[in-house]
FAD binding domain-containing protein
Amino acid sequence: MGTFLRRIAGALVLFQALGSAEPLPAYFRRDPITRRDLSVSKVSVELAALVSNTTTIVGPSDHRWDDAIERYSSFAVPHIELVVQPGLESDVSTIVKYCNQNSIEFITVNRGHALTTTVGNFKGIKIDMASLRDLTIQPDYKSAWLQGGSYGGPVIQKLWDQGYVATTGSCSCVGLLGPGLGGGHGRLEGQYGLVSDNFLNLNVVLADGSAIRVNETSHPDLWWAMQGAGHNFGIVTSFELKIHPRKVDTWHYHNYVWTGDKLEALFEQLNRFHGNGTTPVLMAVNFGDFVMNANVSTTEAVLSWSFVYAGPAADAEHLLEPFNKIGAVSEEAGDVPYPEIASIQGSGIDSPACIPGHRIVLGTASNQVYNITAERQVYNAFNTWAAQYPELAPWARATHDSYSNEAVKKVDPASTAFPQRDENFLLEIAVDLPKDSNQTDAALKLVDEIRGLWNAGQPDRKPVTYVNYAFGDESLDSMYGYEPWRLERLRELKKKYDPSNQFRFYNPIA
Ligand SMILES: Cc1cc2nc3c(=O)[nH]c(=O)nc-3n(C[C@H](O)[C@H](O)[C@H](O)COP(=O)(O)OP(=O)(O)OC[C@H]3O[C@@H](n4cnc5c(N)ncnc54)[C@H](O)[C@@H]3O)c2cc1C
Ligand SMILES: *[C@@H]1O[C@H](CO)[C@@H](O)[C@H](O)[C@H]1NC(C)=O
Ligand SMILES: *[C@@H]1O[C@H](CO)[C@@H](O)[C@H](O)[C@H]1NC(C)=O
Ligand SMILES: *[C@@H]1O[C@H](CO)[C@@H](O)[C@H](O)[C@H]1NC(C)=O
Ligand SMILES: *[C@@H]1O[C@H](CO)[C@@H](O)[C@H](O)[C@H]1NC(C)=O
Ligand SMILES: *[C@@H]1O[C@H](CO)[C@@H](O)[C@H](O)[C@H]1NC(C)=O
Ligand SMILES: *[C@@H]1O[C@H](CO)[C@@H](O)[C@H](O)[C@H]1NC(C)=O
């Protein structure tokens, strides 16, 4: 059995901070230094005695261990020594206080889809939110309370069945809060804003284990920070989210595959269609990939684009007319209830993109208008790299997320920590390294090159990193905003709410 990573220096400070809180059980009143050799099994036993009987504790020798530490991408893996799955929200406080008393690090994990390498710096206890997934629609049908382990698919389905929708990420497998604490992009943002724009209340466990309510009037400073930089500040055990009447029974989709010679025609139409941040609101999103498709070519990527519209086919196809004229090698269109749209776009719970077992090397950028010259360079560079590394080529994609975003732009940018309301498109270059591949350097080379081309294509603008697409090597201001007051304010709040920087494993501010 391993011993826990010690934070002796910080522990004494924490000890004092906690001293002023409720009286501690006698058990805790000891010098943490004497517990240097605390074993995993001892921690399991001690924690079990403190938490509710609905909490599950899984250690490395448990047959459930592999499932308990499974995560989406294994590129950068947190070193988990013990998994604790709180059965009640109040257990979260208990676990955090216990960790503090014993100088044990903790990390909140919900769906385990974090892509940033900064999670790889972690060693300690995983607080697994998977038992906290209740959803309760409020009597006025204007909001719902959700627990901190909620995730896309079931939330979308449950609300839809009752005639409602809410902002979530676009992938059914991804948590609500992983995305939401960093803003949260999804198919309803044109109509209703980011996930975080729809928060009404957050129940938060702070670094010292205290449980507080955060909203516009209760801890308004933290309320500001948790809408965009929330991963740095606390564990959300439950939250109240706005819900909206569902309005339509089906959404229209149209997926196209074009060959590379259509790139200029496509991007000219995309720029016209999206009009620098004026996309028709119901034209919820189009996701577009440069990706190898062996049915078409083994040497040149295709342009694979999927459009979805929150309404009937006729309205959507009227808007899509210019794309229909480009001349696709294959295309497919139809109308389905909203909960099925994720699968149509390759992001449903059973889609390969949602199933764990990836090893993702990633780079991201954002822009307002597509630079067609730069997109051609990206496409050519992608093909050149694919020819050089044919064994990796099928696993690479350059993705363009083009969301309608009217409601995102309506929110005053200064009113939340989310700094990127001026951006219109999210770009990602990713290589999903095969399990036993030793070609990390080749993947990084592609990522650096493509990210560089995207940024060079907007010479008058600074590089932008959506915090939830960060790989961990980007600058802080590219994630949290270039206006100096943003990081200053976030750092002040860190001092106030997390002085020993416990929440530092997800693109940390400090
Ligand atoms: C397949 C895929 C699709 C994606 N699609 C989208 C998308 O459509 N829109 C979008 O905006 N992003 C998207 N992302 C990025 C996504 O926002 C991040 O990867 C996010 O961190 C995933 O959250 P999780 O709960 O799944 O992952 P986890 O690894 O469980 O959580 C990520 C981090 O969030 C924090 N966290 C999670 N739960 C809580 C909580 N209850 N309280 C406090 N902190 C918490 C922790 O810091 C944790 O390290 C996608 C990622 C993947 C891999
Ligand atoms: C768990 O605890 C509750 C109340 O504390 C009790 O009612 C219940 O019987 C316990 N369940 C088990 C399985 O021990
Ligand atoms: C904000 O939290 C306070 C303290 O819990 C509460 O009294 C108030 O009703 C909350 N506001 C909203 C909008 O829920
Ligand atoms: C896009 O709109 C923004 C204002 O929202 C403006 O600053 C920018 O210059 C525009 N870009 C182009 C290429 O027109
Ligand atoms: C290639 O064609 C096969 C057979 O028609 C089809 O099943 C498969 O989905 C196609 N692959 C892609 C990437 O389009
Ligand atoms: C990867 O492994 C193969 C086969 O073992 C070897 O030939 C190759 O040189 C290795 N490449 C790198 C970049 O290490
Ligand atoms: C478009 O990208 C090219 C290549 O990086 C660059 O030279 C050019 O200045 C960019 N155009 C605009 C309008 O930013």
Q: What stands out?
A: DSSP finds 16 helices and 18 strands in the chain. Residues 1-34 have pLDDT under 50 and may be disordered.
